[in-house]
What does this fold into?
Amino acid sequence: MRARSRMRLGALVTAAAALAAVLLPTAGAAARESAPRTAVLDGKRLQQTRLRLAHGDPALRAAVRDLSARADGWLDQGPWTVVDKPKPAPGGDVHDYLSQAPYWWPSTAPTADNPWGCPYVQKDGQRNPEVDTGTDRQDVEKVFDSTYDLALAWYYTGKKEYAVKAGQVLRTWFLDADTKMNPNLDHAQFIPCKYDGRAIGIIDFSQSYTSVVDAVALLADGAPGWSRSDRAGMGEWNEDFLDWLVNSDFGKQEGAADNNHGTFYDMQVAALAYATGDTGLARRTVLDARAKRIDSQIAADGTQPQELARTRSWHYSTFDLVAYTRLAAIGRHVGVDLWAYRGPDGQSLFKAVDILLPAATGAAAWPYPELEFKRFAASDVVHAAADAGDAAARAAVPHLETPPGGDLWALRPAAEQLDSIAG
It folds into this structure.
């Protein structure tokens, strides 16, 4: 009997060792490596999670399968480039990024004399399908999503093909001379016959580009196919893009926005500043967000009045909190606890998340306008509040709706806009 028990124990040990060999070279090697210097993600937490995987933690296996499935789906797609749109941006440079305002529609049928159907009129929350053709908007979202999924999957599984594909995508969009994007958003969210570009278009990048910043930090952890020259090139691109964000007229206008656009702008600037070594700017940006953002954008009861005014009030309330929770994560790296802040009327990030909990758990209906309610949209921001110490959010976590593609919080504990409407 004892001999059979020893045999079963030996088999379990062998199986655990085999899993560790697949996921990492050795658990000991992982322990010796430094944590990745990610801007939003907690590098030390990622390192600990990878060690748990190497030791066969069964609680993480389903999440790794879901992440790997997402990464596998990108292997035969792309790479994408800013230069392959049918017509260049205004000004004629094919390397300039171009996107179209999502909620603006032609007011008349196009004719030979008026091929766009101008003038365009706004329909808030109603996405014009025209914006997904002829511009770079859809492609850049694929760049953001694929590099994040692939870099994370490589970090946790060690599979070379994930890192190689992520590097190919990044080089094509940002680095290669023939295909790279210029580091500006001068022509983002243009409106035909009205504007060649708008400051508001910075949201095209600010809502997701920090995923690329963190993907690059993960690949710097010895990824195959990602060279020292690649790392330097991405560093230079990010420095140039940060300079444009801080000093351009569009950047200054977006930084002055008093809704989710301003929050996401701050989050993007703080992340890029941290990633490029300007920790002073990163810290100032997070500190300033207390009075500049929380005091003015979150009410005493936790609602976000600017977001409740939208036709997609649930989407935009969770959307703004994606920016806030990511900004709080960056603050952790520069010694600022944004979660602990209380405004003059008691405003706080915890209150802003807690007011979502009845709808997020299905206990009550969302009482404000929403064209397409998706309960899972709040899942990540509730996770973030729970991790930050909110007891109500922690109690709500078991009752959250699982997002499409699985709950990946254990592997990438940083909020994403799970019901993205790309604009």
Summary: Confidence is low (pLDDT under 50) at residues 1-32. The chain is about 50% helix and 0% strand.
